[in-house]
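Minutes, project check-in
Item: structure for the 154-residue chain
Input as provided by the requester:
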Amino acid sequence: MRYTIENYDKHGFLKAPIWLWLGWGLLAKAWIVFVVAGASRDSGSKILTIVYPDHDMLYLGLMMGLPSLALMWMISLRTPERGWANRMVSWGKPVTLLTTALHFLQSGYHVYLRHGEFSWLQGIVMLMLLWFGIYVYNSQTVADCFRIPQIQTE
């Protein structure tokens, strides 16, 4: 047995590791920024300009954050009876890697928009995206949490 019993949910599926959840939160950062900017009425546009200098990139970020939000939702819906949810979640690793690569390219484009000017925020985000991509690619736990277990039904 590779994992302890606490690592499985009540349906026999391996729970997603905390680092995967945090990475999905990073990939959905456009949604977080959008909600924070909407909640702060006076400085909302200033917050959006700092994080997303080109507002079209915000909309692209919102679209690219949808797969992460969908995976967060779908991974909690897995049961032996929901074969469709299990099949959708089984595509989680390649979808997460593709979304991470797209976010990395988007962050590179933000650097291009600033004419190569260094920004701590962009540097940290790009470093975290790189680490998250390497983690998802190499982690056996992540691969196992997306795998559909062979569950005996009576």
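Outcome recorded: The helical segments are 18-27, 29-39, 44-51, 55-75, 83-90, 92-113, 120-138, 140-146.
No further action items on this chain.
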